[in-house]
Specification:
Number of strands: 26
Strand order of the largest sheet: 2-1-10-9-11-12-13-14-15
Low-confidence stretches: 132-138
CATH architecture of one domain: 3-Layer(aba) Sandwich
Strand content: 25-35%
Mean pLDDT: 91
Largest sheet: 9 strands, mixed
Number of helices: 16
Length: 512
């Protein structure tokens, strides 16, 4: 019998370097990187890490802005059998240090713009350190120059492939509902995740994917891994700019992208949007936060491919609404991705009937094995069915229709309990967003002497608007028990790097 072990992601990329050697793997502001050059750079990073003493299973922090070096570092870590720990570069210094310490990193790789903030942490972390400096002229302080680090290493990897069940990466949660937790993915589950997602999002070897979110985000990992396992090309931007994104779509004939709703909103509002050539787009994914109905309809009207709305957790549950299924179901986030199963359960853990709201739980081959060093959090996120099988608890409230299409009702922790009635903020927010003077909004529960909690609407206005008039308008269009007690205006809503509204901050701000 032929010996045919399943190649993991590093081996797949190495094979692309062999058979797609001259094809572009990455296009960025610094030029084009072929698959051959990319595979060679990945090997050099892996060999350099091995020379530093990095062993399989060691964690390596990646604190890097978007650049070709960031991609090389990420996959070089995986090639070495180490565990990539990409950090959100927008978090505070204290949060970054806490995450690096929690992961127990043995090395840190940083871009030049991030190195200065990390330097005071290094003695406390006790880490080996390398520096990925995009424009470095040479080493500085405790750091090595990334280009020199690569140049002194061999471009052929002779190490063993990673174990399928070994950790591949630790991605820290966004922290929208509390302290971030390290989400572990193994090599085999990450590969399954990439394969299943690539099918659901219609990736292929001729694809050119625009990536504008930070490469620490699991949304960017979706775009990156789906593109790379298919042997396509990643069109990498340092950050999101609507004009630059529209130019890239035209110039590079971009076929795929993954963005959050806020980015799509900025895109369609840009003056160049109506006349930009968008005909190359074949599949667009929206995720990270709910896609407002008006925006979803605008995307369907503006792009021949429509948009695939994805609901999912980094922990490993995904549903998608295919464009073909969207007509008549625009409020839905679709059905489970192939290989994934979901249920809706009530407060007692019983499966809810079609149309009934309850917590969404899921299981499948892409689900994380657990949180890093947090067995308590893993237990809290686990629901066990009648057969003793473990399901991932999402903390989200949803309902399934008779055909199995999922609609998100709200976050369980965002639910407002007023006078014994469950109030879901998303229902009120959907009505508010239909008002022409409302640009953005969030509804939270605030303390009330009689009802326990009462809904407060926090609005970013688009134009002139009176709070009392808006309150009267929305209350006339929602149920009596849903009526907001007040409307508060703000210039902006607090969001994380993926555009998700941080309601815990709003609850803190308006607690009084």
């Amino acid at each position: 019998m032929f010996d045919a072990p399943q190649p993991m992601i590093p081996e797949i990329l190495a094979l692309h370097g062999k058979w797609r050697r001259t094809k572009a793997a990455i296009v960025s502001a610094s030029g084009e990187t072929s698959w051959g050059a990319f595979a060679s750079a990945v090997n050099r990073v892996a060999n350099g890490l091995r020379a530093l003493g990095i062993k399989p299973g060691d964690r390596v922090g990646i604190v890097m802005s978007n650049a070709v070096e960031t991609v090389e570092a990420t996959f070089g870590v995986l090639r070495a059998g180490a565990v990539a720990v990409p950090l959100n570069v927008s978090v505070s210094d204290a949060a970054a240090e806490a995450m690096l310490a929690d992961a127990g990193v043995a090395a840190v790789i940083a871009t030049e713009d991030q190195a200065a903030r990390l330097e005071p942490m290094l003695p406390r972390l006790g880490s080996l350190v390398t520096r990925g400096a995009i424009r470095a002229g040479g080493p500085a302080g405790p750091w090595q120059d990334f280009a020199a680090f690569k140049a002194q290493a061999e471009d052929v990897w002779t190490g063993a492939p990673p174990e399928a069940s070994a950790p591949c990466n630790i991605i820290y949660s966004s922290g929208t509902t509390g302290m971030p937790k390290g989400i572990v993915h193994t090599h085999e589950r990450r590969l399954a995740w990439a394969y299943d997602m690539a099918i659901a999002l219609r990736y292929h070897g001729g694809g050119r994917t625009l990536a504008t979110l930070g490469l620490y985000s699991n949304i960017s990992w979706a775009a990156m891994l789906c593109t790379f396992v298919a042997g396509g090309t990643l069109v990498l931007h340092k950050s999101f700019d609507a004009a630059a994104a529209l130019r890239a779509i035209e110039t590079y004939r971009v076929t795929h992208t993954a963005m959050v709703p806020l980015q799509y909103q900025r895109l369609v509002e840009h003056a160049n949007f109506p006349r930009a050539d968008k005909s190359s787009m074949q599949a667009m994914m929206s995720c990270g936060s709910p896609l407002p109905m008006a925006l979803k309809e605008k995307l369907f009207a503006s792009f021949g491919c429509g948009v695939i709305e994805l609901y999912g957790l980094t922990e490993g549950l995904i549903t998608t609404l295919d464009p073909e299924d969207a007509p008549g179901r625009m409020a839905s986030v679709g059905r489970p991705m192939q290989g994934t199963d979901i249920r809706i359960i009530d407060e007692d853990g019983r499966e809810a009937a079609a149309g009934e709201a309850g917590e969404i739980v899921g299981r499948g081959r892409i689900t994380m094995p657990g949180y890093w060093n947090r067995p308590d959090a893993t237990r809290e996120a686990t629901w066990t069915d009648e057969h003793g099988r473990a399901w991932l608890r999402t903390g989200d409230i949803g309902r399934l229709d008779g055909e199995g299409f999922l609609t998100i009702v709200d976050r369980k922790k965002d639910m407002i309990l007023s006078g014994g009635q469950n109030i879901y903020p998303a229902d009120i927010e959907a009505v508010l967003l239909s008002h022409e003077a409302v640009s953005e909004c969030a509804v939270i529960g605030v303390p009330h002497e009689t009802w326990g909690e009462t809904p407060l609407a926090i609005v970013v206005p688009r134009g002139r608007c009176e709070a009392d008039a808006l309150k009267e308008w929305v209350n006339a269009r929602i149920g009596k028990q849903q009526r907001v007690s007040a409307v508060a205006f703000r210039d902006a809503l607090p969001r994380n790097a993926n555009g998700k509204i941080l309601k815990r901050e709003l609850r803190r701000d308006y607690a009084g």
